[in-house]
TrEMBL record:
Entry protein name: T-cell leukemia/lymphoma protein 1B
Family: Belongs to the TCL1 family.
Domain of life (superkingdom): Eukaryota
Length: 130
C-alpha cells in the first residue's frame, strides 16, 4: 500500500471525553487530538434559504482527530471547556454515529489509518436527523 493511503480500521472508540481543549481520551486511555475543525454552511440550511432571503446558513462542523500520545496534563473541569463548539463527551450511538452530551448527532465520515496514525473524522448532523 502506498504511503499516505487510508486503511479502514475496525470499531471506532465507544466514548471520547474532553480532557483539555482539543484533546480527548477514549475508553482505552488513548488520547485523540483535534487536528482540523472545519466550519461550512450545512446543505440543509442552503436548501431552506430562499433567493434574496436573509436566512444565515447554519454552520456544519467537521472534525478530524488523530489518535496520538500527548504530554500528560491534568484534565480541565467541564466549566473550563464550555467555550468550545465541540462536545465534552461523544458516545458511540447507532450505526456510524456519535451522540454528544447535548444530544447532537455526529456522523462518522471515516475511521481509518494514514501511515501509522489512526484518524477519526466526524461531521455534525443538522437537528432532526436522528
Amino acid at each position: 500500500m502506498a504511503s499516505g493511503a487510508s486503511l479502514v480500521l475496525g470499531v471506532p472508540p465507544h466514548r471520547l471525553w474532553a480532557r483539555r481543549p482539543g484533546i480527548y481520551e477514549d475508553e482505552k486511555g488513548r488520547t485523540w487530538v483535534t487536528v482540523v475543525v472545519r466550519l461550512s454552511p450545512s446543505q440543509r440550511a442552503r436548501s431552506r434559504a430562499s433567493p434574496g432571503g436573509t436566512h444565515e446558513p447554519e454552520p456544519s462542523v467537521t472534525v478530524h482527530m488523530w489518535q496520538m500520545p500527548v504530554h500528560p496534563q491534568e484534565p480541565m473541569s467541564p466549566s473550563q471547556l464550555t467555550l468550545s463548539r465541540l462536545p465534552l463527551v461523544w458516545q458511540l450511538y447507532s450505526g456510524r454515529r456519535y451522540r454528544a452530551m447535548d444530544s447532537r448527532l455526529w456522523e462518522i465520515v471515516s475511521h481509518g489509518q494514514i501511515d501509522s496514525t489512526e484518524e477519526l473524522v466526524l461531521t455534525e448532523l443538522p437537528p432532526g436527523n436522528g
